[in-house]
Design a protein that fits this description.
Strand order of the largest sheet of chain A: 1-2-3-4-5
Strand content of chain B: under 5%
Order of helices and strands of chain A: HEEEEEHHH
Radius of gyration of chain A: 25 Å
Number of helices of chain A: 4
Radius of gyration of chain B: 18 Å
Shape of chain B: globular
Largest sheet of chain A: 5 strands, antiparallel
Distance between the termini of chain A: 67 Å
Number of strands of chain B: 2
Largest sheet of chain B: 2 strands, antiparallel
Shape of chain A: globular
Helix content of chain A: 25-40%
Strand order of the largest sheet of chain B: 1-2
Oligomer: heterodimer
Chain lengths: 246, 228
């Protein structure tokens, strides 16, 4: 720092440091603005691709032939949360399934964002975690890349007879908890259950279309095949089989 | 110059290691090192920023006024971090999905500021770049050691999920050292970071002292800067 600065020879004007700082701030802002303008569209495109990829994991490809991201419906939430965007899967024009984001605040490390895919008849097609901050090695088994646990939702439904099953084993339900982490799976199970309640309450708006009321039966019977695409047994039986093994 | 580079490298990797000797950048170092892979990711991302900020600060060192140097360094470093973040998001999206988590954390790494002030502002851009590289690799080494030791004790694995960070070609790094091990949860949680750091610093101190004559009690080369 004792190195002579060019201005040391001339008598520095007191305004110089201020101007210099201003010039740097201007230069940095200009750079950032340029970079932002240059990458904004690319980044938006990447975010869309990510969303598309996640949704394509929750709704099997044979259930739709439309552009999911273009076929959306906005639903207001009565609990004051921001409006929910549902992506609708159509095959031959009639809606076969919907997918939407569902956020829970009950995670151990912060909010957990899920995407749930639900068939027209209310059966879960697939659930994936989009973002979470759960403890690495314990709660992060909700990431499909680390564990198959998320597949235990495949093929399940929520109806009048089984609300008690929608809980982790420790709470008397039928979902496995993780060794050392109960809060995370508990939060995710509750969130998926809430999202199914939301589906039941809003199914008219979610799957309303003019045609093909009978079509979903076929679609629903496709669902096990959907599980096969995911390389996992899709039915609740698989979860029960696991419980017997314990 | 060759001598200088040797000195700079030795300094960055061991003698004046950011984490073990300077005790800087502990906030990101402790926060992300629950496994070796995260440590590696954070270390590499920080290295890129250290090199770029070193070169920039050094290039402007004759222009920057002493009185306003700190705010200017803050501006330069935060601009670089933001540019790296959005650039990676746009062009290296797969990598960004894995490393993206760490990049904003680099802004709070006072080691970047420390190197700008202590080295880059007094040396040529080439020297500053080598210093950034050496310091960054030293930081990476420290984080991998920290993350690795926590991961082995806490989880019984090493470099778990390395293929997510580095690609499938590096799947061979993923080791399950102790099959069926239940793990010491404490080491994965934040207190484990402090414990592991304490033991590693003590081990390094011992190694350093072993190489020196007993009479001269070594004074650790820690500057008086406050660590964040």
């Amino acid at each position: 720092m004792d190195e002579p600065i060019e201005t040391a020879a001339t008598k520095p004007r007191p305004t110089r440091p201020g101007l210099l700082l201003g010039a740097f701030a201007l230069g940095c802002s200009a750079l950032l603005a340029l970079a932002h303008a240059h990458t904004r569209d690319l980044i938006a495109q990447r975010a869309l691709e990510d969303l598309q990829f996640t949704i394509s994991q929750t709704i099997p490809a044979e259930l739709y032939d439309n552009d999911l991201l273009a076929d959306t419906v906005e639903l207001a939430r009565d609990d004051g949360a921001p409006a929910l965007t549902a992506y609708r899967a159509r095959r031959d024009g009639s809606i076969t399934a919907v997918a939407y984001r569902w956020v829970t605040e009950a995670g151990y490390g912060g909010p957990i964002t899920l995407v749930v895919g639900i068939a027209r008849d209310g059966r879960v097609l697939g659930v994936r975690t989009v973002s979470h901050s759960e403890t690495p090695g314990l709660g992060d088994k909700i990431d499909i890349r680390k564990s198959d646990w998320m597949r235990s939702f495949n093929g399940r439904r929520l109806d009048a007879g089984n609300p008690h099953e929608w809980a982790v084993r420790k709470d008397g339900g039928s979902f496995d908890q993780f060794a050392g982490a109960t809060i995370t799976p508990r939060a995710v199970v509750a969130a998926v259950r809430e999202s199914l309640t939301f589906f039941a309450e809003n199914s008219a708006a979610l799957v309303a279309d003019a045609t093909g009321v009978d079509a979903p039966e076929d679609a629903a019977s496709d669902a096990p095949a959907a599980g096969a695409v995911n390389n996992a047994p899709p039915t609740p039986d698989s979860a029960e089989a696991r419980s017997d093994g314990e | 110059m060759a001598n200088d580079i040797g000195r700079i490298t030795r300094d960055g990797l061991w003698d004046n290691n950011i984490v073990f000797a300077q005790m800087l950048g502990l906030c990101p170092a402790l926060a992300v090192t629950s496994n070796a892979t995260n440590g590696l990711g954070m270390g590499l991302a920080t290295t890129v920023v250290l090199v770029l900020s070193g070169v920039l600060v050094s290039a402007f060192r004759r222009v920057i006024d002493r009185q306003v140097r700190i705010p200017i360094y803050v501006l330069l470093i935060s601009t670089i971090v933001t540019l790296v973040d959005i650039g990676m998001n746009a062009w290296l999206h797969e990598l960004h999905k894995v490393l993206g988590l760490f990049i904003p954390l680099i802004v709070v790494n006072c080691a970047v500021m420390g190197r700008a002030e202590a080295f880059a502002s007094k040396h040529s851009p080439l020297a500053a770049a080598s210093d950034g590289l050496a310091m960054g690799l030293g930081f990476t080494l420290a984080l991998v050691l920290l993350g690795g030791s926590r991961e082995v004790i806490g989880q019984g694995t090493l470099f778990a999920d390395a293929s997510l960070l580095l690609g499938q070609a590096f799947a061979f790094l993923e080791l399950e050292l102790i099959p069926g091990y239940r793990g010491v949860l404490l080491m994965i949680l934040p207190p484990g970071g402090f414990l592991a750091l304490g033991f590693l610093v003590a081990a390094r101190q011992r190694l350093t002292r072993a190489g020196q004559p007993r009479a001269a009690e070594p004074v650790p080369p820690i500057a008086t800067e406050t660590a964040k």
